[in-house]
Amino acid sequence: MGQNRTSIGLAVALSLALGGAGGYLLGREHAPDPGPAATAAPHCADANATFDDAIEELEALEGSSQPDHEIQAEKDALAARVMTIVDQNPDCYDAGMRATAATWLEDQRQGAAEADTQRIIDCMKDTAPYGC
Questions:
Q1: Confidence (pTM)
Q2: What is the pLDDT averaged over residues 100-115?
Q3: Distance from C-alpha of 1 to C-alpha of 101, rounded to nearest angstrom
Q4: What's the 3-state SS for 47-102?
């Protein structure tokens, strides 16, 4: 029963994060261009192109006929890609975007660590519903 609560809690947290990431992506599309310092870095054009590609993929998912779980998996992957782009190219994005990306990525790492810990506990108690 505790695992169900944990799973539900993780699902809710992920939904909130993805909602924020989706809103962030769509907001990014209509945001003003970055300042001169960000556009001066030569690799920023590549980072922004990859970022824009992710936005286009996100928009394409909205009209997709794929099953919901597949759409959600793709949204998860897109959110991770976008946040990683921002995190790995700090000179291309403003402080607010970098902070959002760093927080989102840390939350994902924390969630994965909690899931791994629970999996180890379940294996030690021999209560894992899956193989150890």
A1: 0.56
A2: 87
A3: 33
A4: HHHHHHHHHHHHHHHHCCCCCHHHHHHHHHHHHHHHHHHHHHCHHHCCHHHHHHHH
